[in-house]
Amino acid sequence: MSEFVSVVVRDGADSAGVATLVLSRPPTNAMTRQFYREIAAAAAELAPRDDVAAVVLFGGHEIFSAGDDIPELRTLTAPEADTAARVRREAVDAVAAIPKPTVAAITGYALGAGLTLALAADWRVSGDNVKFGATEILAGLIPDGGGMARLTHATGASKAKELVFSGRFFDAEEALALGLIDEMVAPDHVYDAAVAWAERFLDGPQHALAAAKAGINAVFEDGFGLESADRLAAERRRYAEVFAAGHSGAGPDGCGADPDGG
Questions:
Q1: Alpha helices, DSSP H only, in 167-228?
Q2: Which of 16, 23, 40, 134 has the greatest number of C-beta atoms within 10 Å?
Q3: What pLDDT, on a 0 to 100 scale, did the predictor assign at position 252?
């Protein structure tokens, strides 16, 4: 039974067939190994469901996710950290592979691994007050789970490097300009705007939509080597090596970032 992740399928006349994959680990939706496993399981549950035509990824009205649970990471050995990296990657890949249109409804903060998870969706709707950041460097770590490839794909190499090297926070307006989000709305309208995007595909041919998504994903993966066994092994090795180096200075959540303090 899931503790942090749930699936809710809407049954309203206009939105029947829109499912919401809800992340719920207050106060910041900091992600643990269990959390990632539950995300992967929820994505696997949604994939074959004929009653689900589109999926909203939602962390609640306060915050999408502040990233990895740093206190948990600090308890891991280097081999355990390698396993955690694999579990993280499997969760992100499972969301990206849901064979239906997916939209991330982003509120509050999307930091570190939370940003990576949002980038796995097909479309991203954000509140105009949201703070973003590839904040892993602030904990002496690097983005994992395909985060650097997805960030680079959206922003280009130079900008991705600046964001990753600095770990700085940036606002929704900059995220929109960089292509990290696709729509910016008032904070109270984020979820409704995401549902409205998903409703566009309720009457579409599901098999055709799934095939189109798979084809576009394949272009992305081929271009950035996302499915290269050598690249994945190298990424996990780099993550494990950085983790083992034992850098400190992380905050309580969000890959060293304090959502309230920057």
A1: 172-178, 190-199, 206-224
A2: 134
A3: 37
Q: Hey, what long-range contacts does 149-152 have (CB within 8 A, 24 or more apart)?
A: 149/224, 149/225, 149/226, 150/116, 150/119, 150/120, 151/115, 151/116, 151/119, 151/180, 152/224
Structural domain span for residue 69: 5-199
Stretches where the chain sits below pLDDT 50 are: 247-254, 256, 261-262
- Locus of tokens 């990753």: 164
Do the Cβ atoms of 15 and 31 come closer than 8 Å? no
Q: Report how far residue 216's alpha carbon sits from residue 221's, in angstroms, rounded to the nearest whole number.
A: 9
- Token pair in block for residue 70: 């740093």
Q: Is 9 within a domain?
A: yes
Do residues 255 and 139 touch, judged by C-beta distance below 8 A? yes
pLDDT for 45 equals 96
In a domain, 233, yes or no: no
Structurally, the chain folds into a number of domains equal to 1
d(CA 248, CA 140) in angstroms, rounded, equals: 6
The half-sphere exposure of 60 on its side-chain side, counting CA atoms within 13 A, is 16
CATH number at residue 91: 3.90.226.10
Nearest to 65 by CA among 256, 262, 261, 253: 253
Which residues in the chain belong to E strands, given as ranges?
5-9, 18-23, 54-58, 102-106, 109-111, 123-127, 131-133, 170-171, 183-185
Return the residue matching tokens 């106060």: 27
Q: In sequence order, which residues have a C-beta less than 8 Å from that of residue 250 and are 6 or more positions away?
A: 70, 74, 138, 139, 140, 256
In degrees, to the nearest 5, what angle opens at C-alpha 37 toward C-alphas 71 and 81? 45
Number of neighbours of residue 117 by Cβ within 10 angstroms:
29
Nearest to 57 by CA among 1, 12, 112, 7: 7
